[in-house]
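REVIEWER CHECKLIST
Item 1: Sequence provided? yes
Item 2: Single chain? yes
Item 3: Sequence as submitted:
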Amino acid sequence: MHFHDDALFPEVQEKLVITVAPYGPEWEPDDFREDLPLTMDEHVQAAVDCYEAGATVLHIHVRELDGKGSKRLSKFNELLARLREAVPDMILQVGGSISFAPEGEGAEAKWLSDDARHMLAELDPKPDQVTIAINTSQMNIVELMTDDDIAGTSIARPEIYEAYREMFVPAGPGWVVEHLKRLRANGIQPHFQLSSIPQLETVERLIRRGHYMGPLNLTWVAIGGGFDGPNPYNMMEFIKRTPDGAILTLETLMRSVLPVNTMATAMGLHTRCGNEDTIWSKPGQKITSVQQVEQVVRIARELGREVADGKEARDIYRIGQTYDSVDETLARLGYAPNRKAGELGFTFHA
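Item 4: Structure as written out by the authors:
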């Protein structure tokens, strides 16, 4: 991404798109019962409250009444239908992991099978986006968590901690290509959740080879444990390598969420918050998803940056758009064109 001399002036920045993830699949309800939805009514109310606070993208997981993360697509369909009524302007983004929480004591924390995740392309009503991981990798979500982060929560139990410590993301090349194909066929935009520059490079190759043609919405997921950590050097290198035409959101975990969101807001990028990312404002003091959204809105106002409403967020994300060719996609995203047969030297758009 290119920063002009005036890039930090809020009046030339896009309006801020706030993603909220208020369903916290890694937590058990008693970890923060007042903010972790259990019933379907609570799921819907969480979305309404976050939207009214200023969030315009809803990252969706679903919990069963026994407190476990749901792996039933029928539950996702039920929630999506109710959300379309309750928050019609909100961008509905289904988490591609479905639920990675362990199902019982001593169970693995793992994503569902390739075939099960492909079924997210068949949800009805369809979401606006499904998040997609690139390249199978470790996803040890507890590596950066401190003793304060897990004290008094279910993650402090040794068997749960170990389950998350050993978790990985299955996202091999064959699955990725097929999943992108199915999402496009059903008019669902992929939102790429990327842990590092090697994954960003793989996305570029997918585009250059025609496996994806459309707007490029990215989230840099800086949670450590096989992903980048929330180090400003990592962050700026990823930003530098992101093409000019992409829309970039920054995501991290626990008490790194607020400083990273503050930097994203100041730099003209976009933010993510919610109890899936953190439940703490400071050691021992919890913060709800709505309070986190309100916090980001306050920071944006202090910086003079406007917050997008739902319709504006849809325009920024280019929901519903696709491109018709590799060349068009490369040009719109700001990547150099592919080399033509016999062409020498560097390639560039005229």
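Item 5: Key structural point noted by reviewer: The chain has twelve helices and twelve strands.
Item 6: Recommendation: ____
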